[in-house]
């Protein structure tokens, strides 16, 4: 038995600290059963809030790398402002309704200057509008927490060593010793002048017609018993944005305290590939946690099964993520279209259900299995994550998740969501068996008491 826990507490030299009591409650049903009491507490202490509809219901978003920060040659841009509608249409046909362009502006500066080597302000704002008309919301990525060293004196801080200079043609590509173009220092969120400048800078773009934004490095100070300054700032910014568009979005790189950030973030933009975040998904409905995808159909399907918010950023050969259209990657394209349809089919489980992860299993299985509970119903998703075809057998104690019943109705579906069979299961000890599944193929079961 191994137990691990974390409590954020600084113990000063010469002092001691004692934790509160821990209560052990052995139980069946894995972590999803044991977390129920904590989930109820979080629901009271941090009640869920409404997300923009397309974020709540959606499969994910696309990130594009428009150019490189140090690049000065317009011919080397991967995308221009006039390309935004074309990218948005490509995202939409793959089930994605949010688009996050990077390097549309110059970073680490306020006010936020547009990259005029990518087009005019009219072209940028027109591209945002046209994308919206196509059904895709554009949330440009901004980075203003670090300020370039040549400008930090305004905030009463010394130049620092946060160097984010990188380019594929540099040697080395990241932080070369001979150039420090993107070097600056992080300004703490309790700096009132910085907050004033950032609010003005973000508000300026909102008033120009860009009500949705994605934010770099959501870093704030904690521990003084007051709402963090950055959270207060973004609440004000979002109030303005919602006055322009009630379905505007705000995403960010989450780096401080996810539960505090959940008050203002709709989704995260973190440098994360697939990770099992089951307990967080079970407890918090916002922000939606991202899962980065380059071209892996398997990662697409794992992220879909977990209800993660896919951050799709395919790359051209030997170039950074986010430089290619999704349609240029056939396997990725096919996988996204498949799971986009399946999410719509089973949407109530994803949106209003409770994520159970693999806790639905009575014992381990040879496949990737996830489950959702929605009232008196279960959805079980089976993904063959092996490199061989297999028929997956697994067992579950339905009595742990569903009201007691003498028998249950079980419906099975194939990878396309087509109903294969409806049958009865007697008793709560249930054995599920899929048809033979090719590698990366899916199967679905819905179960409810009769």
Describe, in plain words, how this protein is organized in 3D:
There is one protein chain. The protein has 450 residues and is α/β, with parallel strands linked by helices. It has 2 domains: 53-145 and 187-345, Glycosidases (TIM Barrel), CATH 3.20.20; 351-449, Immunoglobulin-like (Sandwich), CATH 2.60.40.1180. The protein is built from 12 helices and 20 strands. It has helices at 30-34, 36-45, 53-57, 84-92, 121-133, 192-208, 229-244, 258-261, 278-283, 297-306, 330-345, 347-352, and strands at residues 60-65, 98-102, 137-138, 141-142, 146-148, 162-163, 183-186, 213-218, 250-254, 267-268, 290-293, 309-312, 354-357, 368-374, 377-383, 390-397, 407-413, 419-426, 429-437, 442-449. The strands form 5 sheets. It has a 6-stranded antiparallel sheet with strand order 13-14-15-20-17-18. It has a 5-stranded parallel sheet with strand order 3-2-1-12-11. The chain has a 4-stranded parallel sheet with strand order 4-8-9-10, with no helix packed on it. Strand 14 (368-374) and strand 15 (377-383) form a beta hairpin. Helix 4 (84-92) packs parallel to helix 5 (121-133), helix 6 runs parallel beside helix 7 and helix 10 (297-306) packs parallel to helix 11. The longest helix has 17 residues, at 192-208.
């Amino acid at each position: 038995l191994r137990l691990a826990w974390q409590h954020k507490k600084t113990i000063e030299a010469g002092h001691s600290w004692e934790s509160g009591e821990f209560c052990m409650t052995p139980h069946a049903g894995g972590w999803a059963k044991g977390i129920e009491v904590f989930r109820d507490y979080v629901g009271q202490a941090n009640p869920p809030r409404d997300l923009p509809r397309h974020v709540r219901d959606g499969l994910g978003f696309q990130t594009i790398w428009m150019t490189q920060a140090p690049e000065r040659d317009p011919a080397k841009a991967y995308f221009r402002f006039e390309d935004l509608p074309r990218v948005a249409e490509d995202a939409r046909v793959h089930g994605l309704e949010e688009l996050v362009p990077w390097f549309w502006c110059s970073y680490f500066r306020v006010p936020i200057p547009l990259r005029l080597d990518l087009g005019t302000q009219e072209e940028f704002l027109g591209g945002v509008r046209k994308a919206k008309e196509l059904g895709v919301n554009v949330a440009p990525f901004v980075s203003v927490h670090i300020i370039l060293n040549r400008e930090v004196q305004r905030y009463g801080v010394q130049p620092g060593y946060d160097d984010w200079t990188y380019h594929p043609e540099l040697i080395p590509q990241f932080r070369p010793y001979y150039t420090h173009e993107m070097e600056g220092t992080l300004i703490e969120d309790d700096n009132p002048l910085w907050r004033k400048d950032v609010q003005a800078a973000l508000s300026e773009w909102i008033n120009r017609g860009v009500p949705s934004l994605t934010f770099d490095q959501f870093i704030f100070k904690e521990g003084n018993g007051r709402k963090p300054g950055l959270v207060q700032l973004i609440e004000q910014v979002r109030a303005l944005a919602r006055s322009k568009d009630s379905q505007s979005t705000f995403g960010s790189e989450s780096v401080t305290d996810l539960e505090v950030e959940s008050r203002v973030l709709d989704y995260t933009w973190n440098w994360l590939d697939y990770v099992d975040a089951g307990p967080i998904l079970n407890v918090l409905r916002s922000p939606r946690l991202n899962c980065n995808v380059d071209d892996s159909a398997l990662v697409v399907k794992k992220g879909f099964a977990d209800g993660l918010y896919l951050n799709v950023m395919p790359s051209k050969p030997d170039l950074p993520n986010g430089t290619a259209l999704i349609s240029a990657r056939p396997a990725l394209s096919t996988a996204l279209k498949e799971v986009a349809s399946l999410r719509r089919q089973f949407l109530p489980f994803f949106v209003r259900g409770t994520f159970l992860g693999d806790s639905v299993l009575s014992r381990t299985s040879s496949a990737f299995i996830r489950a959702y509970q929605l009232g008196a119903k279960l959805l079980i998703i089976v993904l063959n994550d092996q490199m061989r075809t297999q028929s997956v057998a697994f067992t579950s104690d339905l009595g742990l998740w569903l009201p007691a019943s003498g028998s249950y109705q079980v419906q099975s579906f194939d990878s396309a969501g087509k109903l294969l069979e409806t049958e009865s299961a007697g008793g709560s000890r249930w054995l599920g068996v899929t048809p033979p599944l090719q590698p990366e193929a899916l199967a679905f079961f819905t179960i409810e008491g009769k």
